[in-house]
Fold:
Amino acid sequence: MTSRTAAATLVLVLALATALPAAQVTRRLAITIDDLPWVNRSAANWLPNAQAGTARLLDTLRGHGARAVVFVNEGQLAVVGERQARTALLESWVAGGHTLANHTYSHADANRLSIGAFKDEISKGERVSQVLMAGREPYQRYFRHPMTHTGDSPEKKAAIDAFLAERGVKVAPHTIENADWLFNGAYVRAVDTGDQAAQARLRDAYLTYSLAVTEFAELASVRVFGREIPQTLLIHSNAITADRLDLLLTRLASRGYRFVTLDEAMTDAAYRTADAHVSRHGPTWLFRWSRSLGQDISFAGEPEPPDWVTEMANRP
Ligand SMILES: [Zn+2]
Structure:
């Protein structure tokens, strides 16, 4: 079978699976949320926006029975007069049954730092979280590299991996990334200018794109592992995700997804594949695993966000 007929067969199989009632399809999805407590480009109204957005995210996850691993930049807490209120946002995640994890202190880019400086960012990045999570010991601790830049040389990647492993910390993979950071850049601008038509258009495009990248990950996982593996979604603690996550999870549930913990997803054999891929970029783990397994599968069909969203997000 050529790869093209194989791909066509997979599309057919997935089309049939999509048509089945949800109860007959077993797909699993772990949810991970980055850049806590809250992504907001402007300092104005940071706290009320963060409080309202956090409440929406927590309500949505509770409504879908989902427990997430959430990656914190503790540097965001260090604001005079707001430290307690910002820390309270993290406490609300713990109270909701979610797991705080380390995303470095200041959202540091491993490409730009020495090994020693990056290790300092890791050490400094989980002090508050560990105190807040003390009541949940023992629990699996996770780390996610900002921009998922996991080390741009074999030496740096190996040194960071070893540093984390010695501490019992697992690197959190992701298999689906919906570019919500880009959509949010445009969305926050549309909120600031009161452009409701643009906000609605962005919310629709966010949902369409999220489902397109999910479908791509399903197909890619069959090509890499010969089956659909549990997927891991990477999203951010931001306005557009807070406004659209409920509908997205509803649509995913109707695709047959059950929301599982990252701990559960990680028990799948696929997640035990070593990530030996060294890059300056931050591809998904499906790409990393495929390259680590020596496969020559093309990921060229991976959907890109619409150009108009990129243009709107980058407008001066
Ligand atoms: Zn991040």
Notes: The pocket of zinc ion is lined by residues 34-35, 103, 107, 146 (CB under 6 Å). The chain has twelve helices and eight strands. The mean pLDDT is 93. The longest strand covers residues 27-36.
